[in-house]
């Protein structure tokens, strides 16, 4: 072990002497301890290779954010005038100075990188561990994820030359150890009989009655939905067929979905409530496999692929996420800004908020509240869960709270301030009162009927709520397109401008961390957002009546 470290130091000295411009290193990212759930096994073999990605600083992200809000805020003169792929890339692209600086640094190490993003803000290259340690004053080591036994190579810190620091957003994967605590529905068995009451079993018919969701869409509307799935959660065609026969007999039982594979994914239960609720809207299942090197379970790979598409999905729903403390700030910010790019082009992005109340994605012991990611990103719409029908109440598992990484966006400032005034000193010190509040909106998430392996079962979780809302807004998109109007795109400014059109959820709480969590109330709250949709009200607000 000592000899390997000595070799690394000798190599580092030689590189520094050969490249005086890159002599002074500045710490760029660091973890103080080995992340929860991982065990440090020692240094990685110096001869083993690793694929690294460098994220270059973009030239005008502030301009892109302004453009996004301009096209997404109902009162703006530019509302609905979504940007083209090329217009977004013009904001995201690094300056020539940045590109040249990073390429010069890599060239000094004999590296010719590959550009892996349309805007040129991501570069990729493969080197051996000895070289990676030299280039970034790092100590790449082997870590084992205890729950699965999976081994991965990471470092607890890395540095970049001071001359390079103004140009580099992050090097990845380095300090990113995030692994899914997975947002999956809890499952309980039920009878094979069609549910007799929406009070105990939620079906598409119940959702149509509760929210006024239409049964069909105008023909040739152009609306579509993409459902992203991870870690071997696959939809089953046979189960979808049974689901449609049982609960949507007005939809042809052979209706299916397209599959797009990322990182070797194959062909989740979200499909039944997109195909089955958004009758007539084409659905694509994006299956993200385990063959990824992006360091964050495929989240980076899928978003880079969607950004590169000429026509990205109009609605994207995801029922997976992480505890925010497990995601380094730099990669969380980079992913969040990627969601901003899609939103500016007209994609409505929905993420389930999680199922751990105020304790994160899943319930766990904690002393301070744990927000979830990507729900804390201000450029996505976070979805919480409700239960019951007379009236709906907040589901106790519905994750919600305030981000510690992202500041409160302007579009929700008034609504969150009102809630904090209502909350008073309750839970003081357990959450970041200045952070982005989530979720934004909610839908049914308990006692939801699906077909699994040929049997009807009940499921619960915000992973039920997100595809229900994805279907709702894709049907609205269909009607907007048929009327010659622009699609919804980034939804949040509309939500907070029109809080009164949603059904408020005023009862319930989301306990965790040895507290009762946050209480629900009329207006916005960090359990169910502004409430649940009323389709007729949405139509009116979007000028369709």
Q: What is the annotated CATH architecture of the largest domain?
A: 3-Layer(aba) Sandwich
Please outline the major beta sheet: 8 strands, mixed
Strand content: 15-25%
Helix content: 25-40%
Overall strand count: 24
User: Number of helix segments?
Assistant: 14
User: What is the CATH topology descriptor of the largest domain?
Assistant: Rossmann fold
Span from first to last CA?
Answer: 72 Å
Q: CATH homologous superfamily of the largest domain, by name?
A: Peptidase S8/S53 domain
Overall outline = globular
Mean pLDDT: 88
Q: Can you tell me the CATH class of the largest domain?
A: Alpha Beta
Strand-pairing-aware structural class = alpha/beta
Radius of gyration from CA coordinates: 24 Å
Number of domains: 2
Low-confidence stretches: 1-18, 182-195, 263-267
GO molecular function: metal ion binding; serine-type endopeptidase activity; tripeptidyl-peptidase activity
Domain Peptidase S53: 201-545
Signal peptide: 1-18
Main location: secreted
